[in-house]
Design goal:
alpha/beta, two-stranded antiparallel sheet
Length: 320
């Protein structure tokens, strides 16, 4: 072997498995005993050591019927590798602890309707089912477009959205459906009539969520399909469900919100539902994840979500 060949071999990254095998041969005095400690065959240990000898272009072991002993070069290599192997063990331990922590944590991004009206019940049941006070849900409450970006960016394990358009580059499953309803204050003319046509709705300044919201996207898509695209400028644009509800109650204009979000206000008489007699606005409730499948803890959480969906596909309201 030429000097250049030797230098090329030495410049390679160290083979940790081979170094560990050599260290165990030195400790136990035999290749077979090292194999038992590693849980591999004697042949596998021998091949690792021979590969290391080839990479370093030097003999490391003297093999005989009485066992194996290190050459002087082998002793040097074992000594030099001790710190490297210890660092590898530390790294493995830290990664293992990180993995264990991930199994106790689910990072979730959810659009506002799901975050406000469904997730509290799911989190309570997931924690109760795990029987572990250390389990944690870390939640970001943002609009559907931001949820998709969080899942794509790997900052969350699961994303819950209400948008009709589901990205094809992510794993997804529909777990229920929601209805978007037009609501007005009790004294509004539409509340008296109880109904409005899609063409009039499209021409009316509405109180809406911001672009990127699943609620707004569902309304716009439904009107587009009905042949009456939303053409009036909004009366107001708010970043939260609460903001839309409060602004509608104040009389700024009709609004469009999830049936989950307005149910209590309708029962209390603060808002009135208005039927769009030639239009029904529904949207899927979808969970998203990156990669081939969610983490183990995330799959446990999804089982809680699945159990909360009634036979017709509408999510429950959580614990009473």
């Amino acid at each position: 072997m030429t000097r250049d060949d030797q230098e090329a071999h030495v410049d390679r990254e160290p083979d940790l498995a081979a170094l560990r095998a050599l260290a165990l041969v030195a400790e136990t005095g035999s290749i077979s005993a090292a194999g038992e400690r590693l849980g591999v065959s004697q042949q596998a240990v021998s091949l690792r050591v021979r590969g290391l000898e080839s990479a370093l272009a030097t003999r490391l072991l003297v093999r005989s019927a009485r066992g194996s002993r290190l050459t002087r070069e082998g002793q040097l290599v074992v000594g030099w590798s001790a710190a490297l192997l210890a660092a590898s063990d530390d790294f493995t331990g830290v990664v293992g602890a990180l993995r264990a922590d991930r199994e106790r944590t689910v990072r979730i991004a959810a659009s506002l309707t799901i975050a406000e009206h469904l997730l509290p019940g799911w989190v309570a049941r997931w924690r109760a089912g795990r029987g572990d006070d250390d389990v944690v849900v870390r939640l970001e409450s943002v609009n559907s477009a931001a949820v998709v970006e969080a899942v794509r960016g790997g900052t969350v394990d699961l994303g819950f959205v209400e948008t009709p358009s589901v990205p094809t580059d992510l794993g997804s499953a529909t777990f229920g459906h929601d209805t978007v309803e037009v609501v007005v204050p009790r004294h509004h003319p539409w509340a008296v009539a109880g109904t409005v046509r899609a063409v009039e709705l499209a021409a009316t300044p509405l109180v809406l969520r911001e672009p990127g919201s699943g609620t707004r996207r569902a309304l716009e898509d439904a009107l587009e399909r009905a042949g009456h695209p939303l053409r009036a400028d909004p009366a107001a644009v708010l970043p939260t469900t609460l903001g839309v509800r409060s602004t509608v109650m104040a009389g700024a204009g009709p609004g469009a919100l999830s049936a989950l979000a307005v149910a209590d206000d309708v029962r209390a008489g603060r808002l009135a539902r208005v039927r769009v007699h030639d239009l029904r606005i529904t949207r899927p409730l979808t969970v998203l994840w990156a990669g081939s499948r969610p983490t183990s803890a995330a799959r446990d959480f999804l089982r809680v979500v699945h159990d909360d969906v009634d036979p017709v596909g509408a999510p429950g309201r959580g614990p009473a």
